[in-house]
Design goal:
CENP-V-like; Metal Binding Protein, Guanine Nucleotide Exchange Factor, Chain A; CENP-V/GFA; globular; 3-stranded antiparallel beta sheet; 117 residues; mainly beta; Mss4-like_sf; 5-stranded antiparallel beta sheet; 10 strands
């Protein structure tokens, strides 16, 4: 794994975080949430994610199986990350479009068929 340290947040700056994440394992998903939002995602263990500010500005959205906590800024509406689990371990899905210094158009994300799940 080629993890690297990044800073990120929402559009207006109310939500601010830092994380270690491997953006080379990015995905795109065609589910009813990810596709229209245009997410390019990478996942990292929860202990490698730190919300620095904005917890009081986050609004939660749950859908489908209600297993992923989609959190978006109540001011600008941007979802920069979501909380979930993988094999029983807390994980964070990072919206790579929200990381400083990352141009997702330069990545080669793997497509995931979330619409069929």
């Amino acid at each position: 794994m080629s993890e690297k340290y990044y800073k990120g947040g929402c559009q207006c700056g109310a939500v601010d975080f830092e994380t270690d994440v491997d953006i080379n394992n990015a995905i795109t998903c065609n589910c009813s949430r990810c596709k229209p939002m245009g997410f390019v995602l990478a996942f990292t263990p929860a202990e490698k994610f730190r919300l620095k500010s904005g917890s009081d500005k986050l609004t939660e959205y749950l859908f489908n199986k209600k297993e992923i906590r989609h959190l978006f800024c109540s001011i600008c509406g941007v979802e920069s990350f979501a909380y979930g689990e993988s094999a029983g371990h807390p994980m964070v899905a990072i919206n790579l479009n929200c990381l400083e210094g990352v141009d997702t158009r330069e990545l080669n994300p793997n497509p995931v068929d979330g619409a069929s799940v």
